[in-house]
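User: Teach me something about this protein's shape.
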Amino acid sequence: MLGKPGPFQVIKSEEAGVPGSPTQPPRRRYECPNYQTCLSIAAAVNWDSFTCRGCNGQVEESLFWQAHNAQRHDKVAEQICEIPPIRYHCCGDGTTPPIKIVGR
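Assistant: First, the predicted structure itself:
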């Protein structure tokens, strides 16, 4: 796979809005099965915008954690953002550490 797990935050440059400065709109892959999750993550962590440019179609695991943490402190984000749960699965033998399962 090419690219890295996304989404990626779009940070406005200081030249944004200056006449003649090149502006490149964020690339969005609306057909991506993770698009709604990425949109919810961006909303939960209060990003102004995000892009799928350079994304390999997977979601960066640390963003799930950030979004869940943000939802604990923001009841509106908790209501409107659909972030897949982070679950743990343990093998049951007591010697193997739990396996983290993010999403579906």
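Now, about its shape. The mean pLDDT is 81. Strands lie at 4-6, 8-9, 50-51, 55-59, 86-89, 99-102. If you'd like, I can walk through any region in more detail.
User: That's plenty for now, thanks!
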